[in-house]
Specification:
Length: 236
């Protein structure tokens, strides 16, 4: 898109605040490029961290296939599906927020950031009810797993018997989804920070790197869940 087209798409009253340039950069382009490169390096380390957990999941599934299949039946697919829709929608609002920042649309940016934060909070609320539902039936990670209560719940919930060592599966489940939840909480924090700056009119066509980088982080958080949901909830 040309500069002329971008200007034509800007809403009435759009702002274009001056771009702050740190003293250790020579140009605005150099500063923006460095910020984006740094974010991609950080996201690469995040992918590596979750890759280790995914590898652990595949090893457990290979060693104990019957246990994994019987254990995953205790997960609430409806809640997992709701959270998937919520996060996908939040990715859309985040992308629209970045676009609004590029166009200098302050109102659009603030609106989409608020929506993204709201969807993130909905995700955590759903996950809270999912966790507490598991805890109430003795489904805890590792050595805290209550075989008697969980086994009775499995019979009532799906009419099947838990096999093998389900505490291993749920140990992975709580670690993987819990770590992802921590990233959602961190995402809410940085989104609030960007929102506060957006309300002050600090972002526009010449300076929107913080919005874009936070958007990249949020998309990675969503992408991780897109892999977690089918592997833990759906795969048979």
């Amino acid at each position: 898109m040309s500069t002329h087209d971008a200007k034509a798409m800007r809403p009435p009253g759009a702002i274009d605040p001056p771009m702050p340039l740190a003293h250790h950069f020579d140009t605005a382009g150099q500063q923006a490029g460095s910020a984006k490169f740094g974010m991609w390096v950080f996201l690469a380390t995040e992918v590596l961290m979750f890759s280790g957990l995914f590898l652990a999941y595949f090893i457990v599934r290979m060693l104990y296939p019957e246990m994994v299949l019987s254990s995953h039946e205790l997960l609430d697919k409806t809640m997992g599906g709701i959270n998937t829709v919520v996060l996908l929608t939040s990715s859309y609002t985040m992308a629209m927020g970045v676009r609004a920042a590029q166009l200098g649309d302050k109102k659009g940016l603030v609106r989409n950031l608020v929506l993204t934060i709201a969807f993130a909070c909905v995700f955590l609320v759903v996950k809270y009810f999912e966790y507490t539902g598991k805890f109430s039936h003795g489904i805890f990670p590792g050595k805290y797993f209550n075989y008697a209560e969980a086994g009775a719940y499995a019979m009532e919930h799906g009419g099947h018997v838990l096999q093998g060592k389900p505490h291993i599966f749920f140990g992975l489940y709580f670690v993987m989804t819990g770590l992802h939840g921590v990233h959602v909480v961190v995402g809410i924090g940085v989104l609030v920070w960007v929102l506060m700056r957006a309300k002050k009119g600090q972002f526009g066509p010449r300076y929107y790197a913080p919005v874009e980088n936070v958007g990249l982080y949020w998309h990675i958080v969503d992408l991780v869940w897109i892999f977690l949901f089918p592997l833990l909830y759906l795969v048979r």
